[in-house]
Specification:
The protein has 117 residues and is α+β, with helices and mostly antiparallel strands. The protein has a single domain, classed as Alpha-Beta Plaits, CATH 3.30.70.1060. The chain is built from 2 helices and 6 strands. Strands 2-5-1-6 form a 4-stranded antiparallel sheet, with helices on one face. A hairpin with a 2-residue loop joins strand 3 and strand 4. The longest helix has 16 residues. This is YCII-related domain-containing protein. It comes from Streptomyces albus (strain ATCC 21838 / DSM 41398 / FERM P-419 / JCM 4703 / NBRC 107858). Belongs to the YciI family.
Length: 117
């Protein structure tokens, strides 16, 4: 079965400073348990804020290193999920369910890409 990487993009400026609500985390935990029991989830995690990140870039034969936060970025990768699904349609359905557990004030995008094998 093919594997898929879902990149969870958030707008850090609109994300609540206190993080997800307790109710949202309960919904998230229930969904992650369901996905895991279904044999779909291989790995998932949230990422530290961009203020704690570093970008390494190769351009024009030179390496540059930039410490976060990255002011030129509106949406950042806030987390990821590695899943194994029968096809893209199934991966997208799980992603939709993931997005729906978020509280209404969140702006979240999930980019789903099949892993080239």
């Amino acid at each position: 079965m093919p594997r898929f990487l879902s990149l969870v993009r958030i707008d850090e400026k609109n994300a609540p400073a206190e993080g997800p609500s307790e109710e949202m985390m309960e919904r998230m935990d229930a969904l992650l348990e369901e996905i895991t029991k279904a044999g779909v989830m291989l790995d998932t995690a949230g990422l530290a804020p961009t203020a704690e990140g570093v970008r390494v870039r190769w351009e024009g034969g030179r390496i540059s290193v930039t410490d976060g936060p990255f002011t030129e970025t509106k949406e950042v990768i806030g987390g990821y999920a590695l899943s194994q699904c029968k096809d893209m349609a199934e991966a997208v359905e799980w992603s939709k369910r993931f997005l729906k557990v978020h509280d209404d004030h969140w702006t979240v995008t999930c980019e789903v890409r099949q892993i080239a094998e």
